[in-house]
Amino acid sequence: MTDRxxxxxxxxxxxxxxxxYNPESIKVTRAxxxxxxxxxxxxxxxxxxxxxxxxxxGGLFHGTDPMTITITKARLVGPEAKxxxxxxxxxxxxxxxxLGAITSAIMTAIGLDASKPPxxxxxxxxxxxxxxxxAQMTKADITYVRISxxxxxxxxxxxxTLKESPSPLSMTNPTSGGRPGRSRHVMVADENLMSxxxxxxxxxxxxxxxxxxxxxxxxxxxxxxxxxxxxAREELRELAESLR
Length: 244
Description:
Helix content: 10-25%
Strand order of the largest sheet: 2-1-6-7-8-5-3-4
Order of helices and strands: EEEEEHHEEEHEHHEH
Number of helices: 6
Strand content: 25-35%
Largest sheet: 8 strands, antiparallel
Shape: elongated
Structural class: alpha+beta
């Protein structure tokens, strides 16, 4: 988990932006097909608040009507502010810089679409209960409010807009992952199946059942950015009974 807003690449978690000051607000909006009506959920202040909006907070992405996420006044402070802002701006291009070109080549080689901007994980707070969604950056409005005497930006205010997207690293087939009641979880750094089990079910012992649901043979193969599905408690009980 992270108590600060963090955004990182799904295919390259080492490329990230960790904000020094959390945003004033995060607005989540989903519009139905045809524009019949709109519903949204937002968080304000410096503490992440859970939302019931489908598709966010680790919830299953349904494949239609993706959410728009608007992040307001997230701040970067210090000598690395400019580097972090360059990451934000670069994420709107399919392949930015040398690393982007390498990633694009790898995606093409394994059959993924390299013509779109990279998928990102937006994370704030603990898995499922906090804010977590896979999305693509569509707009970055950055204001450098302080620059050092050497001409180095050291304080930036960022307003960001992202559009939800399904992860290309889903580890289950659509039928398995889409079972009603399951929630979608994106693995982050320092997580493993045991810690995910503890955070969501209060015990590390459910990790084998999580692996079973996702068809994972080697739990050590699950890397940051990978997507897994967490069974509902009723399904968890059924699985436990079937394995006795």
